[in-house]
Amino acid sequence: MTDVAYESQNESPSAETEEATQEPQISVTGLKGKITVADEVVEKVTALAARQVPGVADLGGDLARIFETARTTIGLGSKRASQGVRAEIQDGMVAIDITIVIVYGHVVMEVAAEVQSSVATSVSQMLGMEVVEVNVTVDDVRLPGEGAATEAA
Q: pLDDT, tens digit, for every residue of 28-46?
């Protein structure tokens, strides 16, 4: 156990102070190694950021959405988190292509611009990479009463 110095002789160390002094300090000075982030990680972060933007109904083009709906319907797995997203990493810089479906009634250009901003911010903050471009393609508009299940029909 590490000795702890106190200014006053009347004070006694608390359990929290003792625990804090026993935690090992990890030094990364001189540490060598390589960190690799897969494109799929960037794609998932991108998809999550895009789905949080108000007005985004879904991700992916017509064929991708139909394929995913059929795949989940027949029990071949759940919907892929990164559907409609393609990321390319080169030298720590990221280029992202994302295809979205807009909810009817939202301004398409505003939603697309918000997706660009949200994606760039999330990928930069979470992965520490420079986002050089985010290309947004609006593939469809989700009409009132239309759901993911009715798209495949």
A: 677 888 888 899 999 999 9
Q: Could you write out the DSSP letters of every residue in 87-130?
A: EEEETTEEEEEEEEEEETTS-HHHHHHHHHHHHHHHHHHHH--E
3-state secondary structure 20-31: HHHCCCCCCCCC
pLDDT at residue 93 tops 80: yes
Confirm if 115 and 53 have CB atoms less than 8 A apart.
Answer: yes
Cα Rg of the chain (Å, integer): 24
Q: Is the pTM of this model over 0.70?
A: no
Q: Is 35 exposed, middle or buried (0-12, 13-18, 19+ CB in 10 A)?
A: exposed
Domain at 39-151, CATH homologous superfamily: Cation efflux protein, cytoplasmic domain (3.30.70.1350)
Beta-bridge partner residues of 131: 94
Residue ranges per structural domain of the chain: 39-151
Helices (H), 15-89: 15-22, 39-51, 62-73
Handedness of CA 48, 52, 54, 57 (dihedral sign): positive
